[in-house]
Amino acid sequence: MTDTTTLPQAAGLAALTLRDGALERDGRPYRMLSGSMHYFRVHPDQWHDRLRRLAAMGANTVDTYVAWNFHEQVEGERRFDGWRDLERFIRLAGEVGLDVLLRPSPYICAEWSNGGLPAWLTARVRALRTSDPAFLAAVDAWYDELLPHVVPLQAAHGGPIIAVQVENEYGSFGSDRAYLEHLRDALRARGIVELLTTADGITADMLAHGSVEGAMPTFTFGTGVATARQLAPEGAALMCGELWGGWFDHWGERHHVRSPQSMIGTVDELLAAGGSVSLYMAHGGTNFGLWNGANWDGVLQPTVTSYDSDAPIGEDGTLGPKFEALRAAFAPFHDGALPVVPPAPRFQPEQEVPLTAEVSLIDAVRSLPAGDPHATPLTFEDLGVADGVVVYEATTHLPDDAVLTIDGLHDRAGVFVDGRRIATLERDGETSVMIGGAARTAVLTIVVESLGRINYGPRIGERKGILHGVRLGKRFVHGWSHRVLPLDDGLPLDDRLQLGDELPVGEESLLDDWQPIGEAGADGVAGAVIEVAEPADAWLAFPRGAKGMVWLNGFLLGRYWEAGPQVTLYAPAPLWRAGRNEVRVLDLDRLGTGVEVRQRPEFGDTEEFIGS
Question: Of 371, 472, 566, 588, which residue is the least packed, with the fewest Cβ within 10 Å?
Answer without folding.
Answer: 371
